Amino acid sequence: MVWGVVSVVLQLTRLRPLGFIPGIVAVLLAQWARREIAAAHGTQSGGRLAIAGLVLGIIGIVLSVVQIIWLVLFMIAVSSSS
User: Fold this and answer.
1) What's the domain count of the chain?
2) Largest Cα–Cα distance in the chain?
């Protein structure tokens, strides 16, 4: 459960434009948490929290990639217009 909480908090507090780094860590921690929970055979909880961290991590990675692409295209447009 701890890794699920860490992955959610990490993704919610990420910094831009390097948001993909905490996103990757959040996905890895969420996967680790899901494996730990599955191996515990019902003695640990937090599966939904781990899934939330996984989803938020993936969303953060996608948004960061889109933001970087947009930034590069904007810089190209500005440099070509002058």
Assistant:
1) 1
2) 63
d(CA 45, CA 37): 7
For residue 3, the surrounding DSSP H or E stretch is helix 2-12
Residue 19 confidence (pLDDT) above 60: yes
**How many alpha carbons fall within 13 Å on the CB side of residue 25?**
15
The answer to pTM > 0.85 is no
Give the type of residue at 30: A
For 1, the 3-state DSSP assignment is: coil
Cα angle 16, 48, 60 (rounded to 5 degrees) comes to 15
Question: Which residues form the domain of 32?
Answer: 2-81
Rg of the Cα atoms in the chain = 17
> What is the C-alpha separation between 45 and 11, in angstroms, rounded?
20
Q: What is the DSSP letter of 74?
A: H
pLDDT of residue 15 exceeding 60: no
